[in-house]
Amino acid sequence: MQISIPTENGFLPAKYSKQATGTNQHNGRPVTSFPIDLKDVPAGTATFAVTMVDHDAIPVGGFTWIHWVAANLPGDLTQIPENASLSGDVSMTFGRNSSGGGLVGETDPAVTQHYTGPMPPDKDHNYLVTVYALDQKLDLSDGFWLNELWAKMNGHVLAQAEQTVIGRA
Predict the structure, then answer these.
(1) What is d(CA 151, CA 30) in angstroms, rounded to the nearest whole number?
(2) Rounded to an integer, what distance in angstroms lies between the CA atom of residue 48 and that of residue 12?
(3) Nearest of 92, 37, 38 to residue 68 by alpha carbon
(4) Any idea what the Cα angle at residue 93 is, between residues 150 and 121, rounded to 5°?
(5) What is the domain count for the chain?
(6) For residue 97, is pLDDT > 90?
(7) Is 166 helix (H, G, I), strand (E, B) or coil?
(8) What stretch of H or E contains 40?
(9) Which domain of life is it from (predicted)?
(10) What distance lies between CA 163 and its chain's CA centroid?
(11) pLDDT at position 100, please?
(12) pLDDT tens digits for range 123-169
């Protein structure tokens, strides 16, 4: 399986990142998710899951920052469209990102249970986006955590593909 995420001059485009303006942000955070093209999806794919994490956040905050977790996207997709996280155009189960954790304390589900884009405070960061092709729908409810996704995916991953995108400081 392969995935492809658009970039501009090697960076994630501004409307998906810290530089987002207008409707592409909510309370100062970028909230418009980028499109992801899916190719060579294995036969038998029932659903997809998506994760986006920032390991470059470890020196800043002490842990990997979770930007996006979603599960149970339909297995017949050839693209996860732009703004799928908020638009409602694609059915999915919404996981929590790091904004919803106890250290940040954000409570707005529009922020905590959807995509929040790169906002690196110190330098450009590398963001790891992974799409998993799964053989079944996962027993998860909105608001699940990344560790719950990993536990439920165990033994059900047909394929996975990754792409690192760079978020501008």
Answers:
(1) 29
(2) 22
(3) 92
(4) 70
(5) 1
(6) yes
(7) strand
(8) none
(9) Bacteria
(10) 12
(11) 86
(12) 999 999 999 999 999 999 999 999 999 999 999 999 999 999 999 99
CATH number at residue 50: 3.90.280.10
Contact 64, 115 (CB under 8 A): no
Token pair of 12, please? Answer: 């994630």
Give the whole-angstrom CA distance, residue 30 versus residue 152.
Answer: 28
3-state secondary structure of 55: helix
**Total number of residues shown for the chain:** 169
Structural domain harbouring 158: 2-167
pLDDT at residue 158, as a whole number: 99
**Does the structure show a pLDDT above 90 at 56?**
yes
Q: What is the pLDDT of residues 131-143, one digit of tens each?
A: 999 999 999 999 9
Per-residue pLDDT reduced to its tens digit, 24-39 = 998 889 999 999 999 9
What DSSP line would sit under 66-128, residue for residue? EEEEEEEEETT-SEE-TTHHHHSSS--EEBP-GGGSTTT----HHHHTS------SSS-EEEE
